[in-house]
């Protein structure tokens, strides 16, 4: 039932060729070019093992849960295995893992539960760097319950969080800090352990949006000490499924809008209706796929240790590629790059850029049609960042490197942008 890991190289971490062989999507050709997928920040490609695990579930184990015949028992095993895998992924306990449709839906449901602990005039701190999936659920509470939303500023020069501004948002009525671990538009990585310590020192709880963070930094909820955190498997080679972590006592005590069929105990009380079991099978396989990138020498290590090795290996390979991408683009006349410079410290390998005088939609479609480079344009629901930088119209072009990105693809993207800029 569990998907087998991808075939390892002889020594050390998996080679790029071996990793790429796991992704049938990389064989796609568009306009005569092998497609180069730079759209990972919107959703990464999926390895065969994940699809196999999902189809294996649907074809051979499909049932509803909690009954006493084999396929139902197997379904229960798949649910439990997914909780264990997600717990390994987040360094949490399985009873602290909730599954749902996606981060936005889980966060919306969470926001309703948190609202019931708040009174009029209580405050929630959000940040300008955040995706609006981590803003809109909280701002709704302002209209509905008289909760006050305070917004920490970003620093436009560095693309980082303005810590002085964050600190100044806390007061006696602050009940929650809702903060993103990484900007899906700029690639900025924020020090969420520091932000959590700051919020806790003011008696506020912390919810982390790790959707754009988890694919690049291995989440450690124990080290961060956040109270709640959400991420989405489709950003790290899995299917469309959302994962919510919560400290167990919090998941037990928060007054979630539990409907009658849901069990009374956490984490199940958060999961309304029938879960997407095939997506849970796929989520486990995606986490196993990530772990397998640590390579054969660690194949007997616990999954968490392999994940640590895999993320280290991924950073070592992707960071130089991203530096080349940044430098290549910055050397092109008319290109404006947004987000922290790679030399400024840890960041996700995601860059947003514009090309002077050419609409970003036009850039994105020419990159696809003439160069086989798939990189989207838009505001990516990072509406406040776009507003602060005055990015209107069709937004930025966004390019993100993933575990399967090659140096040739980075070169192709850079030469594509150069050619488009010259032709204009
Ligand atoms: C940073 C960030 N937060 C939240 C979301 C929303 O996630 P989901 O699609 O799982 O609701 C996204 C989606 O792109 C995102 O990039």
Describe the structure.
The protein has two domains: 16-46 and 303-423, Aspartate Aminotransferase, domain 1 (Alpha-Beta Complex), CATH 3.90.1150.10; 54-288, 3-Layer(aba) Sandwich (Aspartate Aminotransferase, domain 2). 40% of the residues lie in helices and 15% in strands. It contains 14 helices and 17 strands. It has a seven-stranded mixed beta sheet, sandwiched between helices. It has a four-stranded antiparallel beta sheet with strand order 13-14-17-16. A two-stranded antiparallel sheet has the order 1-2. It is globular and about 60 Å long. It starts with 15 loop residues before the first helix and ends with a helix. The relative contact order is 0.17. Pyridoxal-5'-phosphate is lined by residues 102-104, 131, 133-134, 180, 184, 209, 211-212, 232, 242.
């Amino acid at each position: 039932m569990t998907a087998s890991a991808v075939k390892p190289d002889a020594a050390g971490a998996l080679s790029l060729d071996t990793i790429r062989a796991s992704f049938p999507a990389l064989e796609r050709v568009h306009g005569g070019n092998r497609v180069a997928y730079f759209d990972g920040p919107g959703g990464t490609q999926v390895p065969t093992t994940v699809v196999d695990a999902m189809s294996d579930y649907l074809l051979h184990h499909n049932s509803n849960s909690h009954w006493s015949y084999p396929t139902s028992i197997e379904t229960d095993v798949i649910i439990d295995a997914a909780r264990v895998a997600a717990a390994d992924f987040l360094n949490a306990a399985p009873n602290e893992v909730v599954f749902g449709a996606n981060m936005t839906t889980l966060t919306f449901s969470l926001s309703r539960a948190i609202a019931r602990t708040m009174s009029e005039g209580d405050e929630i701190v959000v940040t300008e760097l955040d995706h609006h999936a981590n803003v809109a659920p909280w701002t709704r509470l302002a209209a509905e319950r008289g909760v006050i939303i305070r917004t920490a500023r970003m620093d436009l020069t560095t693309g980082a969080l303005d810590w002085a501004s964050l600190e100044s948002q806390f007061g006696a009525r602050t009940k929650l800090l809702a903060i993103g671990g990484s900007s899906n538009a700029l690639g900025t990585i924020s020090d969420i352990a520091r932000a959590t310590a700051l919020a806790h020192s003011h008696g506020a709880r912390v919810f982390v949006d790790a959707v754009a963070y988890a694919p690049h930094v291995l989440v450690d909820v124990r080290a961060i000490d956040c109270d709640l955190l959400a991420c989405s498997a489709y950003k790290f080679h899995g299917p469309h499924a959302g994962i919510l972590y919560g400290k167990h006592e919090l998941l037990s005590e928060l007054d979630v809008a539990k409907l009658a069929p849901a069990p009374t105990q956490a984490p199940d009380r958060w999961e309304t209706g029938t879960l997407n079991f095939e997506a849970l099978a796929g989520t486990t396989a995606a986490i196993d796929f990530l772990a397998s990138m640590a390579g054969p020498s660690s194949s007997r290590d616990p999954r968490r240790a392999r994940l640590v090795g895999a993320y280290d290996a991924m950073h070592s390979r992707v960071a130089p590629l991203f530096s080349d991408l940044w430098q290549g683009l910055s050397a092109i006349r008319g290109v404006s790059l947004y987000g922290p410079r790679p030399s400024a410290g840890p960041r996700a390998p995601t860059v947003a850029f514009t090309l002077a005088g050419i609409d970003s939609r036009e850039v994105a479609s020419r990159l696809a049609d003439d160069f086989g480079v798939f990189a989207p344009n838009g505001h990516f629901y990072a509406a406040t960042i776009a507003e602060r930088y005055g990015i209107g119209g069709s937004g930025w072009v966004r390019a993100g490197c993933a575990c399967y990105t090659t140096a040739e693809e980075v070169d192709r993207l850079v030469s594509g942008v150069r050619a488009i800029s010259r032709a204009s």
